[in-house]
Amino acid sequence: MFPRGKTDKDRCPIGLTEAMELWLGPSSQGSAFSSREELLAAWQRGREYVMRMWATNGRRPQAWWFLGDAASLGLSWPGYHNQQSYLFEHNALSETEHEQLLVGWRRDFEDACLLEDAVARRKHLDWADVPHSLRRQWQAARRRRERRSAAPSAEEAAAVK
Length: 161
Description:
161 residues; mainly alpha; 9 helices; elongated
């Protein structure tokens, strides 16, 4: 696909330092850009590359959040640890991300259900950033299954009479 020794990273249309700032935000030493105009121009030139590299797993680059893309969708920065559920709840994930996150969240939900303590369950689900809408949906389904399995069958009910 790429010439010998070349990788996708070699195809970056802007400098890698600039791309990293678009991904993570300015470093502790300050911005790689001398002006907002230079930052916006780099985002325009490097956006496709930066998004392809780092808009994955329900997370977005800092430039996406702060240079207009999120705002154009009516979204605002929810904090690093809540990006996945926030983007899920606002239907801003790719189909692949959506499916991958559902699998992981379902596993986290089932793991949390094994915990005895309600506070520990909530903390685990918060840590995993499982969306509240999924928590409610899966908990309701779990309760229905538990009620069905606890309810006597028709044969058992007839035998009691």
